[in-house]
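hiii, so i know i said id send this last week but things got crazy w the move. better late than never?? heres the sequnce for the chain we talked about at the cafe, plus the structure i predicted for it. fair warning i was half asleep when i ran it
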Amino acid sequence: MVQEGIAKAKVLVESLPYLREFSGKTVVVKYGGHAMVDEQLKKNFALDIILMQYVGIHPVVVHGGGPQINRFLEKMQVKPNYVQGMRVTDGETMDVVEMVLVGKVNKEIVGLINHHGGKAVGLSGRDGDLVQAEKMTLHSKPLSEDRPPELIDIGRVGKVTRVNSEILSTLEQRDFIPVIAPVGVGEDGQAFNINADLVAGSIAAELKALKLILLTDVEGVKNSQGELISTIYRDQIDDLIAAEVIQGGMIPKVNCCKAALDGGVSKAHIIDGRQEHAILLEIFTKKGIGTELVA
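okay and structure toks below
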């Protein structure tokens, strides 16, 4: 019992410099993957966010919900369709996306945080024109030297054009934790489905957050030998992508972090959300657990 107590005391002492440094700062967390499914991990996530607020940090949560959307579409006998990793979103699918993300997933996360003693408020990007967007355009690969890339229409999929941070600042002053569904609003007032990583990165840049943290289902970025890379500098990112060290679904996450760094975020982190208390281990310990990206 004494040794266990000493170990806990050492953890608190190790975290003290970080508590001092981070107090009063904003940390944006993209919540997704297995951490949104496993019941114990869901509870741990809520407790991590609440603890961050208790020690003076201002957490902002942006969540995904792709699997939940797919389950609902399956009940409607609608097969999900993706192009270059983006969900093709027609009008009917957009209705489902908004209903599931805003009406179900968002409220569950808010309820979980509040149940464990936090003060969370659920928002979508349409509330107060929080996340303004425009249609995202994709292009096919060149078919031949004589045939240029073709424009691909993926429906109401958007990219962020502006973040209205006023509503977030107001909530922060009142000690509320914003929980944001990645649905944006266009100039026509209609909803856009936006990748949650992109929304989190844009919000982090607008708020000049101290940190952007992306919870994933992998340990972080790995090198060609399969070993975790603990630190990546912004100037290394393009070379690592060109060398195919960073590939597949990790590319948009790393590019999101790069954009956040360019927008004024101090550090970005890609960490394994399957690890218990992953957020606290990353920001309050010297070694951390994932990959940090720095300018």
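btw The chain has a mean pLDDT of 88. thought thatd interest u
miss u guys!!
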